[in-house]
Recover the amino acids of this structure.
């Protein structure tokens, strides 16, 4: 761009200000987008943490329900086993009672059978004696009636005594058998009572043992449930603490990232402002410098006897762009000026532009000059060229 006056410099400065404002607005939009993205990430992390907490709670409740169902099933099995045990004990009691009744019946039957056998033997003996007596009577009847009568009386006495003795013996045996039967029945009743008491004691002991086992199992199951519940509660608390720590670390990291982005943005904006300020100052200085507003070259010429001196006012950073050449009596002074500009777009691309302009002045002098002797010197803002005459 050709800078020819203060108006062009002001337009260029306005353009730079607009570009800087646009960049600042772009960076502010980027910061807003980063903040929005950060808030979305935080909300997503919160939602994920809540879903994970609810899922874990549902799983724990399902596990507790399964454990309760298992415990109820085991309790039902224990109850069934207890019922079966009671039924077996009742069957054993019935069996023992039946055996006792059978033994008593057999013993009574055996006593009656023995009694009938003894009675039959006595009757048979009595019949045998009667037959024997009858034979003897018939035999003795032939010898003497007195002997017969005597024998009859003796036989009757002997039969009576024998019958009485047999009756007494039979009564003794009946009483002894009855006593034995009573004792046996009493022993059986005592044995049955003892067995019943032992059975009741065993049954009571088994019931107490089953009750203790059942209570121990219930207590163990309850302890397991309490331990499982406490364990899951501790897991939930630990996971909640981990989530809080993770959330705080994530929040801290995002805050640090946001602060770093803000710092970089501020540094970049500050750099852009400083760069543009320097460029603005340079352009303002150029606009106010007469050298950059020159439209023609007017060197100061000093003519001496052996040499000529040409002097031009030039800024320090531009004196290398001024050149002087001589050929015979012809002298030529040239001035070259270059301008460069660079703009940074939102996508990071750079746009560069450069311009240059050239001023020259040609004139003649009275003397012939030697171009090989041209020397130049810059001092106090004055560029001087010295050339020897031929």
């Amino acid at each position: 761009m050709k800078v020819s006056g203060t108006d062009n410099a002001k337009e260029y400065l306005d353009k730079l200000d607009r570009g800087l404002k646009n960049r600042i607005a772009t960076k502010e939009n980027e910061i807003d987008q980063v903040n929005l993205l950060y808030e979305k990430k935080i909300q997503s992390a919160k939602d994920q943490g809540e879903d994970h907490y609810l899922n874990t709670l549902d799983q724990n409740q399902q596990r507790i329900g399964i454990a309760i169902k298992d415990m109820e099933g085991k309790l039902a099995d224990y109850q069934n086993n207890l019922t079966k045990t009671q039924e077996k004990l009742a069957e054993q009691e019935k069996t023992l009672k039946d055996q006792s009744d059978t033994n008593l019946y057999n013993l009574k039957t055996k006593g009656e059978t023995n009694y009938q056998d003894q009675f039959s033997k006595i009757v048979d003996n009595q019949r045998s004696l009667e037959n024997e007596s009858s034979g003897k009577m018939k035999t003795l009847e032939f010898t003497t009636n007195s002997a017969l009568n005597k024998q009859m009386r003796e036989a009757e006495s002997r039969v009576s005594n024998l019958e009485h003795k047999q009756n007494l013996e039979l009564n003794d045996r009946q009483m002894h058998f009855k006593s034995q039967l009573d004792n046996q029945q009493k022993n059986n009743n005592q044995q049955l009572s003892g067995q019943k008491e032992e059975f009741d004691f065993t049954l009571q002991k088994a019931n107490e043992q089953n009750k203790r086992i059942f209570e121990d199992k219930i207590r163990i199951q309850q302890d397991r449930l309490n331990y499982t519940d406490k364990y899951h509660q501790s897991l939930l608390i630990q996971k909640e603490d981990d989530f809080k720590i993770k959330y705080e670390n994530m929040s801290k990291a995002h805050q640090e990232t946001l602060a770093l982005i803000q710092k970089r943005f501020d540094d970049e904006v500050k750099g852009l402002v400083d760069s543009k300020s320097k460029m603005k100052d340079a352009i303002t200085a150029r606009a106010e410098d007469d050298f950059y507003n020159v439209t023609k070259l007017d060197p100061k010429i000093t003519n001496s006897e052996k040499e000529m001196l040409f002097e031009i006012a030039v800024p320090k950073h531009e004196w290398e762009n001024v050149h002087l050449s001589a050929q015979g009596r012809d002298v030529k002074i040239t001035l070259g000026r270059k301008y460069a500009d660079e703009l940074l777009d939102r996508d990071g691309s750079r746009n560069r532009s450069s311009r240059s302009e050239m001023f020259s002045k040609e004139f003649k002098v009275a003397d012939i000059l030697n171009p090989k002797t041209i020397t130049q010197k810059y001092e106090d803002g004055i560029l001087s060229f010295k050339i020897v005459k031929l």
User: Anything to note?
Assistant: The chain has two domains: 1-288, 293-388.
